[in-house]
């Protein structure tokens, strides 16, 4: 895509701090650095997000994530890592080229706060929702 910043990084039109590259995947440091070592893993093929990604592209990209994540963790000394992906604007996606965030974690005071509200589950509603989703899953 002509206006895609990640496509411009892939082509070398825009510089990046690369940490990994092969013929299908590129990983580079995010310029925002939510924490030290914050890395983006992207397919070289332009695809909007995971919701539009083929199984082949997903297999290629996600098969590289553990190796890159371990390298980031080792190089930074992080004690944990969030591996995140946002799909569409409502979910926080701001660059519409699929990418996975590797966010190293250093402790509870590293500036990243994630959590979920605990509540009593409605198991019947969960079962109904699971059935609806399962019916939509196709190969």
TrEMBL record:
Active site: 99 (tele-amp-histidine intermediate)
Placement of sequence motif Histidine triad motif: 97-101
Domain of life: Bacteria
SUPFAM superfamilies: HIT-like
InterPro entries noted in UniProt: HINT (IPR039384), Histidine_triad_HIT (IPR001310), HIT-like (IPR011146), HIT-like_sf (IPR036265)
GO biological process, one term: nucleotide metabolic process
Segments forming domain HIT: 5-112
Pfam families reported for this sequence: HIT (PF01230)
Any one GO molecular-function label of the UniProt entry: catalytic activity
PANTHER family the UniProt entry points to: ADENOSINE 5'-MONOPHOSPHORAMIDASE HNT1, HIT FAMILY PROTEIN 1
Protein name: Cell cycle regulation histidine triad (HIT) protein
Primary gene name: hit
């Amino acid at each position: 895509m002509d206006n895609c910043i990640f496509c411009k990084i892939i082509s070398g039109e825009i510089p990046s701090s690369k940490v990994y590259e092969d013929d299908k995947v590129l990983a580079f440091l995010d310029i925002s650095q939510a924490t030290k070592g914050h890395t983006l893993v992207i397919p070289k093929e332009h695809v909007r997000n995971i919701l539009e990604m083929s199984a082949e592209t997903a297999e290629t990209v996600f098969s590289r994530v553990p190796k890159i994540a371990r390298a980031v963790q080792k190089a930074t000394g992080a004690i944990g890592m969030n591996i995140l992906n946002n799909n569409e604007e409502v979910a926080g996606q701001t660059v519409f080229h699929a990418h996975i965030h590797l966010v190293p974690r250093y402790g509870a005071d590293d500036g990243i706060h994630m959590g979920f509200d605990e509540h009593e589950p409605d198991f019947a509603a969960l079962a109904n929702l699971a059935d609806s989703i399962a019916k939509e899953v196709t190969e």
